[in-house]
Design goal:
By secondary structure, this protein is an alpha/beta fold. The chain has one domain. It has 4 helices and 11 strands, in the order ββαββαβββαβββαβ. A 7-stranded parallel β-sheet has the order 1-4-5-7-9-10-11, covered by helices on one side. Strands 2-3 form a two-stranded antiparallel ribbon. The longest helix has 13 residues. The radius of gyration is 17 Å and the shape is globular. The structure holds iron/sulfur cluster. The site of iron/sulfur cluster has 10 residues, from helix 1.
Amino acid sequence: MVFPIKEKIKNLNVVIGCPIGCRYCYARNNCRRFHITDDFSKPQFFENKLRLFETKEPKVFLLTGMSDFAYWQEEWIQKVFEKAALTPHNQYLFLTKRPERLHIQTQLDNLWFGVTVTCAAEKERIEILRRNVKAKHYHVTFEPLSDGVGEVDFTGIDWAGIGTETGNCRGKISTKKEWADSLCMQANARGVPVFMKEALEGIVLTDEMIQKFPKEFAL
Ligand code: SF4
């Protein structure tokens, strides 16, 4: 059975706001609709949410559901990493579209750094991430795909997500089955677990949907 990723990976938006301005940004729409902050283009840190890291059961949290990690201030990063170090039973995921802005070094085993890739021209983000972020775990989110990505170097990548554009955006572009299939085959060949987001169901046949997590997530 296909399940939504949010059943397993919880958004914990310790930072809200992002200046990148993607056309398809649902976070910006939600921020405006629910008046969460005054200006989504200016990231804000909600330090009080760090207490939510203190879970009894192990959890996997996406910390950048309403921000881009590359626009977090240094002081915020330090506070989040400190709290993550105190809660090693949880896994914490970060995503960026601007890895060239990052210079991070960490030995923490529960931090997962990723880039978003939507087309072949953005593949270089994977290499830049590996170069600029020295960490234990990397992941890539191929979403929303607007083109075939072609050959991908999955070296050192521990998890890959594949998705398509959702919502009612103008100019919405759907991922093509062959683009998703190609990424799956390449990831499988490297032993990288793949998670196809639920919105791909219909583009990909239900019984061909792959929804795997890294073993560290224990999901
Ligand atoms: S990078 Fe993410 S948070 Fe920022 S505008 Fe794009 S979709 Fe929204």
